[in-house]
Structure formats: structure tokens, C-alpha cells
Amino acid sequence: MSNTPEDLKYTKEHEWVRDNGDGTLTVGITDHAQDALGDLVYIEMPEVGRQVDAAEACAVVESVKAASDIYSPVGGEVTEVNVALGDAPETINDDPYDAGWMFKLRMSDASQLDGLLDAAGYEALVAEEE
Amino acid sequence: MGLKTPLFAEHQALDARIVPFGGWDMPLHYGSQLQEHHSVRRDAGMFDVSHMQVVDLDGSGATSFLRHLIANDVAKPQTPGKALYSCMLNERGGVVDDLIVYFHALDQYRMVVNAATAEKDLAWMQKQGSSFDIDICPRRDLAMIAVQGPSARAKAVDLIPAGLREQANGLAPFAAAEQGDWFTGRTGYTGEDGFEIICPAGEAPDLWQGLLNVGVAPCGLGARDTLRLEAGMNLYGQDMDEDVGPLESGLGWTIAWEPADRDFIGRNALQTQREQGGLRRFVGLLLTGRGVLRGHQEIRSGGKPAGEITSGGFAPTLQRSIAFARVAPDVGAECEVLIRGKTVPARVVKPPFVRNGRPCIDLL
Predict the structure, then answer these.
(1) What is the b/e burial string over B87-115, where b = at least 16 CB atoms within 10 angstroms of the residue's CB?
(2) What's the rounded Cα separation, in Å, for the pair B212 and A8?
(3) Which of B71, B66, B65 is nearest to B96 (CA)?
(4) Residues of chain B with C-beta less than 8 angstroms from the C-beta of A94
(5) Are A64 and B340 an interchain contact pair (Cβ–Cβ within 8 Å)?
(6) Domain B280-364, what fold?
(7) Which class does domain A9-109 fall in?
(8) Options 1.10.1740.10, 3.40.50.150, 3.30.1360.120, 3.60.20.10; which CATH number does B8-48+140-230 get?
């Protein structure tokens, strides 16, 4: 059973979103996603300053098996990326919700958060997919 | 729902991630394929390879049959325990499968062929062997465990039956020994030392447990693939298939052209290929830019398409991405690979990439 923290929001593409309370969000991939992908070996991050739309592909995670696109959960501007993942992509496997955070966004429209899933909604999605 | 080896319950007990492979339900990994890869390079790991097909072949026509059937020559390994790696070709010179043949006694051989191609191979052998005095016996009563790594032989040897143990201990690389239904080869698909042990199916779970108890790490297909790629070993179905021959797959060294009058299937087609020239080269690649090389990615040289990757991935021991590729003959020391729409630089290198735990190529 994958871990799905209650205090986060989720997308259908298996990203998690933490509202930092200051207009920015932190984004990563879920425990379910890292488990399905397997050992991660390479991460491609968006550039700081890049404007992204909701659902736009903006990062790539590569496991030993395959490459997987990561989509921005909301529209906004990339403010920070977790550069430590460059040398240690396996951090996402070990700790997907904390040390494995991928990038931060300044939201352009906070109401887009309402369209995201809560923990129960995400768990239901995962159960359906299995 | 695929076929299950005699060790399936062991994999379930260890919480393996099971995936379909060539008609079988096999362990992909037991938690982390990267850790499993490192276990083999640094210590000892084991693979359930019972899905591979053991075929025993005997009869007065066995030697002449094999000298016709496969591109390497079984006249070479004619003492007990000697082994031969070979391709089995079709009339067009394409590869039906790659396999190992072991000499047991005069006109008595054991072959080990790939799991995904077993049915095809057996049908091919039956057809090609119809005019020879031979018995072709697929052995489904046996299991096989590959124990690989610098500590593998030391850890495995006490689990081999007493009557076979001393012989197993004394094996030269690529030689085999057997007693009754137990068989040990100092062979493998990882580039490390080790044994491939064949035993009766009913005895395999005890062997597996015994190996676990002495600290051999269970390893799945994921690690098997990263290990063999680093070791410069081809994978049938990816690096070669029925439409491409050994000369364009880095397997020219497995063809025994002499004696010139040995008429093996595919000889004429290969001869024609050699005479015509212009054959594509099978090379190793080391990605110098960032990313991961993957099968079917396009190679570019001088801005033009120049071939494609056959097997690619991340090499855990090197911490770099590597690949095999089939390229135009004029590709030089550097090329580019099209990765998701971007050209990324790569260097052409000669495999193997890793042997006995150490890089064999220049990583700088």
C-alpha cells in the first residue's frame, strides 16, 4: 500500500502538490509513482523562471526502465528546482514527499488548486488503475 | 498468466515484482534492481533462469547434425564439460537464436536456448534434424540458478552435491561438470565469475534457500539486463533477430569458417554478405551528454541518420548511460543520438564496458 499524505493535493498524473501558504507550491511525484517507475537514474528539470501552463509537460524522470513526463499541476512560474536530485535521483525513490521534492512554482491562479485531488481522491484513482 | 518456474513461490515469498517475460511470470526485482546489480558486481547475486530451455541431444548423428545446425563448430569442444557459444542461423543468415552447447560424451550434447524462443527453436531443430539419427529431448524436469559475483563460487560450492563439488571447484572458466541430474557450468551472463547450476526441479527450492542463507542476494530480470549490457553481451530479440546476421551484430567471432567444407545453415548467405561488403558495424556507445540511451533511438553522424540503438540503458557500475548500436560503416569515434527530439553527443567505444567489477573503457 503506497503512502498518501493527507495534507497534500494530487494530480491524475501522480504528482503531489504542497501549498506553501505564500503563493508558491512544491511539486513532486507520489510514492505510488516512484514504486511503479522503479529505480530512478536521471532527472531533467525545468529552468527557473520558466512559465508553465496547467498540464504542461515540464520535467522528465527516467528510471532504468523508461522515461516519464512530469506535468505542471497548475499554471505559474518555476521559482526553484531541487538541484540535489541531479547527482542523486534515487532520493525520489527513498523519500518522494520530502527530500525528493522536484520543483517549486509561483501560482498564477490559486483557484486551479480546487481542481486537484485530495488524498482520498488520489487513493481511489490508484485503486481504480490497479 | 504465464508459465511459472519451480521457484515461483520463492519469488512471491520475497515480495518480488513479477512481470511477464517470454511467456513466463518472472521476477523483475525484489525491491531495487540497482542494489541487485551492485550485489553481483561486489559480492554474490543469484538469478532464477529456469525459464531457459535445456535441450539434450544424442544419437549417432548428433555431431554431424550440430555441425550443420549452428554457425560455430562443435568439433571444437570434444571433451566432457567443454562449452561453445554459437548462433543458430536461418538460410538468409539471420539469427534464429543464440545458445550454448556443452559436450557430455561422444555424440551427446546439452544445449541451453532462450526462453522466449524455445518453442520456435525446438520446431526448427526438429525440422532441420529430420534426416539425422538423433533424439531431441527438451528437459522440463530441471531448474537452473545462476550464481554470479566475486564471492559466488565460494558461497555456492558447499550447496552442490558432494559427488560433484570437487569437480565444480576445479572448473576452468567456461567449462562444466555434471553428476546425475546436477550440472554446474562456470558460465554466466554478467561479466563476473560464478556458476550456472542445473538441478532437478524438486531440489531447486532447497538450493535457493541454501544460497539465501549464505547471503547470496536474489536478483531479477532488471539487474540481469543492466549487468549483461555492461558486460558487452548481446540479448536476442534486441541486438539480433531473424532479419539480421551475426556479422552485423558483433558476433562474427562466433562463426567458424574453417573447415571450409562445413556446410552449416546460413553459410552461403554469410559468405555473400562478406563478399559484398558495406556491412553495418555493431558498436558500443557511451553517452557523453546528459540523459539515457534507449533501444531504437536514432544515431546521427555528420548531421545525417547513421543507424540506431539496439540495446541501451543506464549502467549502474559506471554511473553513465551506455548502449549497443548498429551503425553505418563510416561512423567515426563520435556521434550523436536523438533523445526525445534533441541530439546528444556520444562516444563510440569497444565493448565490454565492465568486466570483473571494473570499467574496461575510458570514462573521461
Answers:
(1) bbbbebbbbbbbbbbbbbeebbbbbbbbb
(2) 40
(3) B71
(4) none
(5) no
(6) Elongation Factor Tu (Ef-tu); domain 3 (2.40.30)
(7) mainly beta
(8) 3.30.1360.120
Q: Return the residue of B nearest to A60 by Cα.
A: B291
- By Cβ distance, the residue of B32, B291, B294 closest to A39 is B32
Residues whose CB falls within 8 Å of the CB of residue B183, separated by 6 or more in sequence, listed in order? B102, B110, B176, B177, B197, B198, B199
Return the pLDDT at A66.
Answer: 86
**Cα three-residue angle A112-A114-A116, rounded to 5 degrees:** 90
pLDDT in tens, chain A (130 residues): 579 999 999 999 999 999 999 999 999 999 999 999 999 999 999 999 999 999 999 999 999 988 999 999 999 999 999 999 998 999 999 999 999 999 999 999 999 999 999 999 999 999 998 7
Query: Residues A82, A8: contact at Cβ < 8 Å?
Result: no
Q: For residue A18, what are the contacts with CB-CB under 8 A and spacing of at least 6?
A: A7, A8, A25, A26, A27, A101
pTM beyond 0.90:
yes
Domain ranges across chain A: 9-109
Query: Using an 8 Å Cβ cutoff, are B168 and B185 in contact?
Result: no
Q: Do the chains contact at B314 and A62, CB–CB below 8 Å?
A: yes
| CATH 2.40.30.110 location in chain B | 280-364
Q: Is the model more confident about A1 or about B85?
A: B85
Query: Residue A2: what pLDDT?
Result: 72
Which chain B residues touch A93 with a CB distance below 8 Å?
32
Q: How much is the mean pLDDT over chain B?
A: 97
Quickly state the pLDDT bin for B24 (edges 50, 70, 90): very high
Q: Considering CB atoms only, which of A41, A44, A60 is closest to B314?
A: A41
Compute the count of residue pairs across chains A and B with CB atoms less than 8 Å apart: 35
**pLDDT (mean) for B242-262:** 97
Is the distance from CB of B328 to CB of B335 less than 8 angstroms? Answer: no
pLDDT for A1 equals 56
d(CA B184, CA B171): 9
Hey, are the CB atoms on B290 and A41 less than 8 Å from each other?
no
Asked if B324 and B311 touch (Cβ cutoff 8 Å), the reply is yes
pLDDT of amino acid B278: 94
Closest-CA distance, A8 to chain B, in angstroms, reads 26
**Is A62 at the interface with chain B, CB within 8 A?**
yes
State in Å, rounded, how far the first CA of chain B is from the last one.
46
What is the least distance, in Å, from the CA of B321 to any CA of chain A?
9
Report chain B residues touching chain A, CB-CB < 8 A.
28-29, 32-34, 222, 226, 290-292, 294, 313-314, 316, 321, 340
Report d(CA B133, CA B330) in Å as an integer: 47
Assembly ipTM: 0.83
How many angstroms away from the CA of A58 is the closest CA of chain B?
A: 13
